[in-house]
Amino acid sequence: MSWMKALGSGLRGLLGERRMLYQLMRNDLKARYAGSAFGMAWAFVQPLVSMLVMWAVFQVGFRTSPVDDIEFILWYIAANVPWIYYSDGVNSSAGCLYEYNYLVKKMRFRTELLPLVKVLSATCIHAFFMAFAVFMLEIYGYQPQLIWLQIIYYSFAAFCLILGLSALVSAVSVFFKDFAHMTGIVLGIQFWLTPVLWGPAQMGERALAVFMLNPMYYITNGYRDSLIYGVPFWHRPWLTLYFWAVTLALLAVGRLAFRRLKPHFADLI
Asked: What ranges do the domains of the chain cover?
């Protein structure tokens, strides 16, 4: 498959720029909240406050019943952590070429690095929230298990999905300026199609069959499988196969779209 070879060579080329990627990622994290009193802390405070509000409303206020004998807040956090990663990575990538327009106009700069920088920045924040999820499990008395390491696999799967979408979204946003705003709306709709506040058992068979087409179903369900239910990913072979087929296709399409549209970026930005 020629497109697989091209994709592999493209990824190897990006990884060859490790030092530049690290510097850009570091600067990106600083620049996000430059000028604010708490600086980069806002990257962690905002999602944490959101989780605490959910805990106060559902766990303390409404006294929501456990889901599958699991405290609601733990069940919720296990799926919300990968969703924060996904939405942050895709949303921030939408306008990254405009944000770094001074680099886009440099002839020798590899603009393919810019969506990757946004995804890597989101990955750093995600690492913190993965640790927070594990901390919450321990607070509620759950002992560390070997299968918890499976979230590394699902994090990598999420990374690949976000990377494919970020390349596509960032490239298209240059030609359709409203596309970045549309991305936020689509993510808002997708949130309700993703099992964050609901579980597969709460859905009918027909509805679930449709929702399972959403690749984030595999990721959020996988985090719960890893941290709560103890289900290995190879116990879901067809879902795993479907997810990687969609993700590899998005990586290929995203890379192709970026390459085809790249010559026009400097003129339009």
From this structure: 2-268
Q: Per the structure block, which two tokens stand in for 147?
A: 């299968």
Separation of alpha carbons 10 and 252, rounded Å: 10
Measured in whole angstroms, the distance separating CA 207 from the mean position of its chain's CA atoms is 24
Closest CA to 133 of 189, 75, 185: 75
Q: How far is residue 203's CA from residue 214's CA, in Å, rounded to a whole number?
A: 15
Please say whether the beta carbons of 126 and 81 come within 8 A.
yes
Query: Residue 133 contacts by C-beta under 8 Å, 6 or more apart in sequence?
Result: 77, 78, 81, 223, 227
For 39-82, the three-class secondary structure string (H helix, E strand, C coil) is HHHHHHHHHHHHHHHHHHHHHHHCCCCCECCECHHHHHHHHHHH
Give bridge partners of residue 70 from the DSSP assignment.
67
23-50 tens-digit pLDDT: 888 888 777 765 554 556 666 676 777 7
CB 77 within 8 A of CB 136: yes
DSSP H or E segment with residue 163: helix 150-175
The pair of structure tokens assigned to 86 is 């996904």
Q: What is the distance between the alpha carbons of residues 75 and 197, in angstroms, rounded to a whole number?
A: 9
Contact 114, 163 (CB under 8 A): no
User: pTM here?
Assistant: 0.86
Say how far apart CA 160 and CA 116 lie, in whole Å: 10
Q: How confident is the model over 90-128, as pLDDT tens digits?
A: 998 988 888 888 888 776 778 888 899 999 999 988 998
Task: Give the residue from 90, 101, 114 showing the smallest Cα distance to 17.
Answer: 114
Long-range interactions of 140-143: CB distance < 8 A, separation 24+: 140/71, 140/74, 142/74
Tokens 């306008």 belong to 95
Q: How many angstroms separate the CA atoms of 240 and 252, rounded?
A: 18
Between CA 16 and CA 157 the distance in angstroms is 21
